[in-house]
Amino acid sequence: MSEGTFEPKIIGFLCNWCSYRAADLAGTSRLIYAPNARMIRVMCSGRVDPTFVLKAYSLGADGVFVAGCHPGECHYVEQNYKAMRRFLMLRYTLERLGVESERFRLIWASAAEGRQLAQAIDELVEGVRALGPLAWPRHLVAGAEQEAALDKIVHEHAEAMEIPA
Ligand code: FES
């Protein structure tokens, strides 16, 4: 892949009640923003285990974000405060592992904030684009193999969100 054609691969974990709806709103409002993010719906930002993030990087993501309800507005009372604490610890750890802090972002977006979410994703994509590929998954061949690995994560999480009939 030449530098000029690098398109960052981003994985986003979005809470069901606010941020995922903000992404929906951005879509239905036809906002134009970077199409680089694969969105994964989770029930709450507090559900995002650090291993989800590490796995995303290890399978080829160049950047990851976690998006949730604003502090004080979590539908599970204070789980987004837990997400915030985890985010800070994980970002610190990732930096020591060579993953620049610009590659990991925590975003607060209410269901009405499609524009703000889109803008935050654009900023993340531009920051990662400036850094270049992460190159953590050296065992993966960039291209189809990397795409398939990332799609697999999205599929796994989508299955976890399914509610049995
Ligand atoms: S429900 Fe949205 S962050 Fe908890």
Q: List low-confidence stretches.
A: none
Bin the strand percentage.
Answer: 5-15%
Name the CATH class. Answer: Alpha Beta
Taken together, the total number of domains comes to 1
Characterize the structure shown.
This protein is an alpha/beta fold. The chain has five helices and four strands. It has a single domain, classed as Rossmann fold, CATH 3.40.50. The chain has helices spanning 19-28, 50-58, 79-96, 114-131, 144-161; strands spanning 10-15, 37-42, 63-68, 104-108. Helix 1 (19-28) links the parallel strand 1 and strand 2. FE2/S2 (inorganic) cluster binds at residues 15, 17-18, 44-46, 68-69, 74-76, 79-80.
Summarize this entry quickly.
This protein is of the alpha/beta class and 165 residues long.
Topology:
Layout: E1 10-15, H1 19-28, E2 37-42, H2 50-58, E3 63-68, H3 79-96, E4 104-108, H4 114-131, H5 144-161
Parallel strand pairs: 1-2, 1-3, 3-4
Helix pairs in contact: 1-4
The structure holds FE2/S2 (inorganic) cluster.
FE2/S2 (inorganic) cluster binds at residues 15, 17-18, 44-46, 68-69, 74-76, 79-80.
Q: What would the keywords be for this entry?
A:
single chain, 165 residues, alpha/beta, Rossmann fold, 44% helix, 14% strand, binds FE2/S2 (inorganic) cluster
